[in-house]
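Hi C.,

You asked whether I'd gotten around to modeling the 390-residue construct. I have! Everything is below, sequence then structure, no commentary in between.
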Amino acid sequence: MKRLEEASVQELVKSTKPAIRVAWLGHKSVKGGDGITTYSREITNELKKHGLKVLFFHQYVEGDQETDESIPLPMVQLFHPRMQITTPKARKELLNTLKNHLVDIVHVSVAFSTLDFRLPNICHKLGIPIVATFHVPFDKRISVWKGITTAIYRAYATALADYDKVIIFTDVQKQMLINMGVPAEKIEIIPNGVDIEKYSPGRGTFKASVEAKTLITYMGRLDPEKNVDALIRAFKDLNLDDSIKLAIVGGGSEKKSLEKKFSSDNVIFTGPIADEKSRIDILRSSDIFVLPSSIEGLSLAMLEAMACGVATIATDVGGDGEALRGAGIVIEPTELESQLHLALDILLSFPEFRSQIAAYCRDRVVSQYSLAMNVSKLLDVYIELISGRS
């Protein structure tokens, strides 16, 4: 796609009367702030600031609490929160809303539900272009996780080929999808972006509240592919002073077992923290951020930590290695515990080097992974598709 100048995009968006109407199918949770939830919240908020009208559809399962004006679509949840079956009532409600609100474009944050596979057909019958952001993580190496994620990519490839545009985060993802039959001209690489004003260096209060001299932080889901157990073992193997603490921020399937096995004076489990200001406070309080995942797409938590000026260590999986290389410390997932041990030891032993790495991390996000850049490119996509429709 030919890139429009940012000023031209702004003029096109502002001159569109009535305002561009976007139906967004995404994720909203009152329980936590994982990346796929954050993506929907941050992008839609920014689109509204640019003058677009956003109808936010989200998954609703019996027992959920409603906190805003977004539109819940009834779902049946399977064994995992991300495994959602769309009900006939939800499909009908979506179809009627798209018709009645004269929507200009639909954008779905995939994986959303079983509706992912039917949305292109629904939208095209109504004459509405549709965009998908494909969040499913991936692994480049021969591993069990690669086998699982490759199978998911293949399952989605046929449906993705029917979308008007598919947004992914890296060249590796693009090539995978092309090899599986998704037309190259339908794929746009738009990396995740962070609000660099909101996520910025500052003095947090969390470190003092847990009586830490130095704070290492993990923030994300506590599920097997995140390898939080390996991080805690590497941390404990260093036999550090109690004033050096490790904060594990998040919830997930392994939370209870990790707490039972590893809770101590210098390993702190906060549980999931939904409040964004509290998460920013923790990141600003942190000296080191670690993401030891086996698979990723492009971690927003990692980018947020980098934006807050935190020296960052992450595995070379998904798009994380590409985003961090040359700014932080990138480690091999095949030698996880030994490399975690070494990387932590280096950053703890050399505080001046740690400060330099922290500054590099901040600069990398500002120059290449800001939310403003992300939304500008996304508006290019919208304008191209809406113009083509007319």
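If it helps when you're writing up: Residues 310 and 358 are 5 Å apart (CA to CA).

Thanks,
B.
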